[in-house]
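As a warm-up, study this chain.
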Amino acid sequence: MSKRSNPLIAIVGPTAVGKSSLAIKLAQSFHGEIVNGDSRLVYKYMDIGTDKPTIQNRNSIPHHLIDIVEPDYTYNLSTYLNDASKITDTLSHECKIPFLVGGTGQYIWGLVHGFRSPNVAPNKHLRINLEQKAAEEGSFKLWEDLKFVDEVAASRIDYRNVRRVIRALEVYMETGIPISESQGSDRNLYRSLTIGLTMDRTTLYQNIDDRIDRMIARGWVEEVRNLLDKGYNENLSSMHSIGYRDIARYINGQLTLGEAVTKIKVDTHKLARSQYSWFKPSDNNIIWFDISNEKSYTMILESAKGHISKHVNDSAII
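Now compare it with the structure written out below.
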C-alpha cells in the first residue's frame, strides 16, 4: 500500500469516553496498530495522571509514540507530525492499519490532513522572556503583540492560551515569517475514516470524576512526588498536563488534597468541552456514535470494515 492509498482510522472524542478501549478492539479485529494522538502520553514517568494504556494492553497490541521523551523535553506539533508520519509509512509498508487515537486536536487533524508545522526549535531564553511579559503585563497584551505581526494567527488563537501565543511569536521572531504563512496542509494525505465517540454529558462528567478518584487511589500523588524528586519542576511543559501542578501544590502545602482533586475534576470537565470544539458534532467528516448505545460497537465495526475494504485488497486484514 502506498501512503496515499493506505487507510487510516482516527478515533476521536472527549477524554474518558472510551477511545482507547475501542481502538484496541478494532486493532485486534483488523490487523492494526495504535498510533498515539495525545500530546501528554509521549512523556515518560507520567503514567497515572495521563491515563496511559496499561502495559498489558500495549503488549496485546503495539502502541506507538508513548513514553518516547523525558519530561523536560519540549515535544511540539512539528516533531509529532514527523514522528507519526514515519510510523504510518512503516505500517503501510507492512500492510497494517494505523488506528490514530487521542484527544489532541492539533495532532489528530495535523496528521489526517497533512498539516505542516514550521520546523523551528524552541528558544528557551525567548520563551522565558515572553512568559515573564505575559505574567507582568497580561496575556492579552502578549496576544496584541502577536496580532501586530500576524493577524491571521492571532484570529485563530485565544489570548488566554499563552503557550500557543508564545509559540506563534517565537516562530516569527526566529524566522521573520508569520506562523500563519509557514503552515500549510496537503488534504487527503490518507484515506481516512474518523470515528467520533460521544455520550450524555452528565454521564461523561461522572466517568471523568470516577477516573480521577481511581487515579488518586492508584498513586497519582506518589507519581508526582517522584517526578519532583527527579528534578522535574512544575513549570515544565509536560507538567502542564491537567492535575500535575495541582498535585505538586498539594505536596508543597499550597492546597489540600481535596482542593487539588476538585480543581482537577473541574479542569477536566473544561477539557472535555474544549475537545468538542476540535471535534465538532456538526463536522460531516466525523461519523459520530453514542458509545452508551449497546448497538454502537457493531455499527462502528461495520463502518471500519467498509472503509478498509474499499482500500485494501487483503482478506487477512478484513
